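Progress against Task 2.4 (sequence-to-structure conversion) is shown through the following example record, which the project officer requested during the mid-term review.
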Amino acid sequence: MIARRAEPRGHWVLLVLGGLVLTVLLLLDGFANGAVGEAPRDESPDAGKGTVPGAVASGGPVVNLADGVPRGRRMPLKTIALTFDDGPDPVWTPRLLDVLRRHGAHATFFTVGARVAENPGLTRRILREGHEIGSHTYSHVDLATAPAWRAGLELDLTQRALAGAAGVHTRLMRMPYSSRPDGLTGPEWRAAERAGEDGYVVVLTDRDTEDWARPGTAKIVQAALAGAGRGEGAVVMLHDSGGDRADTVAAVEQIIRRLQPQGYRFTTLTEALGMPSAVVRVPAHEKAVGWTLVAAQRSASALTGTMGVLFAVAGIAYVLRLVMLLLFAHVHMRRVRGLSRRGRHANPGTAAPGTATRETATRATVPDGFQPDPEMSDMLDNELPPDPFPPVSVIVPAYNEEANIASTVASLLDTDYPGTVEVIVVDDGSTDRTALIVESIALPTVHLIRKPNGGKPSALNAGIGVARAEILVLVDGDTVFQRDTVRHLVAPFADPGVGAVSGNTKVANRGGILGRWQHIEYVIGFNLDRRMFDVLRCMPTVPGAIGAFRRSVLARLGGVPGDTLAEDTDLTMAICRTGLRVVYEEKALAWTEAPSTLRQLWRQRYRWCYGTMQAMWKHRRSVIESGGSGRFGRRCLPYLTLFQIVLPLFAPAIDLFALFGVVFLDPAVPLLTWLVFVTAQAAAGAYALWLDGERIRPLWTLPLQQFVYRQLMYLVVVQSVATALLGARLGWHTVRRTGAFTDLRGREQSQGPVGYT
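Structure tokens generated for the chain above:
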């Protein structure tokens, strides 16, 4: 038995906190870029109604409301205050700073708080080179349409960003979308008035170059020099971010070159007006708070970019996997049908007992190009069954399986297999009527072993210890075979290179939506995967519900391992590493009772996932080994790591990012991606169902599966990884059986249990 420690619970708190942090960061980045909380600009005819004081409308561009009386001030003669909005920008702001430095000019940069947080080093350079910084809100929001609380938040966040990036606050503010004083609207004035009441000096402009529209260098220069011939000073509005600003950089060079020889000076706003510096140093605690905001904003920006890349990578990986699965499924289908046409894996009934030889069996069953690994030659010499119908021992480990055990045993006995079939039921300390039901069957080919509860591996090994046949079929106690299942399951062993055979597991209780979801998963996921693994000769799992093994191979491996919770995966990987083939036989059907509630499904998949990770870790050295072991390790383990651990681990975050895009960004991209995803999955599902001879009707539940079932499977991976990292151990979880096969006996089975197709 595996030692069991308490399952971790604290990681759920960490998971919730992680989700909240991710949500906050996405919202912060969306807020910074105007995607979240952006108030639409009101461009209706009545938008500008309101009273703007005449002293402001006809006054200068620098408006001071310190004493409650608005006063507009103008630049002195031959004094130019170059102002740049929307930055800092990592491309264009440094180029403008280089131009200003070459000419000994200074300017005022009205910075967007979010850009300050993203470019703290550039912000410090602006101040270090003698320039001035003003506020242009945090997300470039239109203060004229934003509510008062939003306007206050925008300005406050900008101050905190400046404190975190450069340790300063500023007294200057320019409203986004504003221009000259005579163009102020009533709502804009009210916003300016609120800012003035908070101690800001509101800056407009004399000369709006409209360089944001990229009219060309000549027109920008022309707008900036209007009135320069009369020696007028001016506040000139330019932009250092928001797109290609090459024309602006060239225009600034020309403006300075043309005006400096005429005696113009280029300086900051406060210096030009003889005002105290707008930049004020902040105490350490303000700087610490600001640093937190800067760190959060930079993390949010990096996260959004990373999530976008992950979203794309996950989509591409999924498409490639889907294409790969379909291609290998097609190859597998052609190979199986080709073998059937040429008599390979043919019905053993066509051969006379005792006539099979190693050469004829190999020639009749080995796919073209297959060569057994040299190190397996000694093992294979004595492992070919002496006749085409070797005796078979079916081992059924059972713990509290009274609901289905009678149907399971009856289906095993009702077989068309010509050889001898013995059924060994190992009662693993059941507390219900499982053993009594088996005893009541009272047939010489049915044997009951009672043992104290020790777990499924110990029950299987107990059954193997008393089994008499070379071919062992391991069956779960909730599984029902069809009449021809044993025959199809044993047929591949005519190839001496086959060490184990995986059957085709079907969900019996597929009546409800949860059952349909599991049915789709079994057909699309598990069985398509097995077809690919069969072709690549790297099968990771022969399912516990239906699998056949050579007894001699299990003996060499020490029986069924009990040190992982996925004994079937652990055992299969060990067989693959010997160089023997593990094949998938699609015609060997077994009907199993799947969990009927989400809680039971969670417990089952939690064990499966955790056990699979244990097995992968146990066999990790196969990646660097040679021969059959290396082939298995390098083909299978990276695939499992990527598609069963890594991508599911990040999938909740990717889904959250997609949801964020639908709500706050352009919904077309995530919705189109989701539609393509579901359509591709439905097409693959239809093909997989066709390969398995199933109806495609259950596919209508596929879109719904994306919203509940898929997320549940992802969270299973998250908990499994957390459990592994925290060093906890899981015990076996039991699933309450409902008796899906109670009424099965006596019904036609050629197409599977009645009512489940």
